[in-house]
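Issue: copy button drops trailing tokens. Both records pasted manually instead:
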Amino acid sequence: DLQQKVEETEVLKMELQMLETERVRLSLVEEKLMDVLQLLQQLRDLNISKRALGKILLSTLESCCDPQPGKAQLFKVLDTLQQELTACELLHKQPMEQAQSPQSLANPLVISC
């Protein structure tokens, strides 16, 4: 009876460790997703065109075309998208343009439909 309790305790400890690992992984995904959403918001505020945003997204997907098992591939896509958005020239030019003139918010890449 005591041996069975010890085994059950070990199983519960392993399950708890797996849950904690998953919680940490989800926390990291949440942080990465928040970063990506903030970058997208900044680009929207700069009136980035849908075409330019589409090119960033397609570039991200093309660079992550290696078939990997589920969660690892999704995190790689999210991470690469964050890197692509961070590297976007509009985000780096924005502070200088605002300092030059208040009219600099108009983006020449905007395409009206």
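Record 2 (pasted manually too):
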Amino acid sequence: DLYRKVFVFRKDPSDAFVLLGARLEQPLQNFTVCLRSYTDLSRPHSLFSYATKAQDNEILLFKPKPTEYRFYVGGKFVTFRVPEGRGDWEHVCAGWESATGVAEFWLNGKPWPRKGLQRGYTVGAEAAIILGQEQDTFGGGFDFYNSFSGELSDVYLWDTALSPDKMRAAYLSLRLPPALLAWRSLSYQVKGDVVVKGRLRE
């Protein structure tokens, strides 16, 4: 249970990452991924990377610059333009559903205009899920200049597209539905220079 805890990625650039364990019974037709990050990086960095043997960017949350988030499904991406952060925690949720191909993006509890992405696609279940690096091969192939440096917290992955109420609940750290990956019951392995610390402030 990582309640009120964070992963601190201490170095920049870095070879460190956190490997997450999720039990996926079947491929994903819908999903939502949420996390909170705190960094002063202005270079590109990867937040959440979900790779299968067939597709290294099966699910990817990537920040190429301070005013953009890229959300990948099955190797294709849409870009969400955001105001430059004011040196504070940023909470993001990205949701996707195969039937409509609609990609949702929420920043700090607010929805951005929805976009179209990979309609009819299915996300594979046999995955390597990594925080802090972008996988170019299954479980590896990192470019250290895309590594994350800073603090990560409140990581979740659901096999549904969350309702607007639940998206806001995730931002406010309220009670959430059972998840494939849940911060309060996370199975993880730290690889390299990452430290678990208490949150500095709420």
